[in-house]
Design goal:
- This protein is mainly α.
- It has one domain.
- It contains five helices and no strands.
Length: 78
């Protein structure tokens, strides 16, 4: 009889993905608008697009987030 080897449970690729629809519903924006906002967040924050989407999922106010990122990017330039 063959021995059964147990492998530790791995996280699937689907579990790692960000809930795009959840971000759109939370902020009441469309997917195309989300692409523009996520691009701005990624560029201003010098982060990857995936990290930008994570920040959008965590934040409650997009204009406030963009304002803070703009001031932070201006401070880095000085």
């Amino acid at each position: 009889m063959a021995k059964i080897r147990y492998r530790p449970e791995t996280i699937s690729e689907h579990a790692k993905q960000i809930d795009i629809q959840g971000i759109c519903v939370k902020h009441n924006i469309g997917r195309h608008d989300l692409i523009g906002v996520a691009t701005q967040v990624a560029r201003l924050g010098s982060i990857t697009p995936v990290q930008a989407l994570e920040r959008l999922l965590e934040c409650d106010d997009i204009p406030n987030l963009l304002t803070n990122l703009k001031f932070n990017s201006l401070d880095k330039d000085l």
